[in-house]
User: Fold Dihydropteridine reductase from Bacillus mesophilum.
Amino acid sequence: MQIYWVKINKIIEETPEVRTYLLACPQDFTWEEGSHTHFALEGFNAGDKPNRSLIRHMSISTLPHENAIGITTRIREQCSEFKTILKNLTVGDEVAIFKTHSNVPLKREGKNIYLLSSGVGLATFRPLLLDFLNRADNVNQIHSLNIDSSKQFLFTDVFASAPDKKVTSQFVDNREEYYEEVKNLAADKDGLYYVVGSDEFLVQNIKVLLEQGIKAEQIMLDKHEQQLAEFLPLHLSNER
Assistant:
């Protein structure tokens, strides 16, 4: 396993509670849209066993052509040891990244794609939308629906409706409106539905989509193969 120690080049305050850390790109480090990585702080591998409290599974919110590895995360006033340390890091400090993989690349099957997310989960979808805007081959259109009760919506520059580019984007701040809209979107029985958020959020979205007649194989989750069976009624390793 290769561990990359990389410098923080820039810290962007997206909202009062959300920051994006732009990390330097090692020459041989590559990734694709929908990727996540293990993001670790200094000291995580100092002992005989990795200190898991200093490691988090994070989505990469950028694409390689942006020349930065973007990690976008919410840091509340009351937060974990990991987030407390992260909050105090500054430009020039180093963090580690390793085990990078994508569970949710953009499927180019000539269908409509629906991106369903909660809060900072939108960071996972930013590269998918950018990839589509760069190359629209074999995707009919993309619709993004994000719920964030803080009303401080993320990446509104990227997630902006552009009918000429076959992109529509919605932000809502309450669950009732969100799930009604999910039901409306599920009228497309041939679409692909990507869902990113907490496990509870995934379970509720899957329930609504299945009730509307969407098949399990049309639902894409940012989970490893072995985890999919915990959320979907069928283990779809052969489908994916």
Observations:
- The helical segments are 81-87, 122-134, 175-185, 199-211, 225-231.
- The first strand starts at residue 4 and ends at 15.
- Residues 4-102 form a domain with the Elongation Factor Tu (Ef-tu); domain 3 fold (CATH 2.40.30.10).
- The CA atoms of residues 44 and 50 lie 6 Å apart.
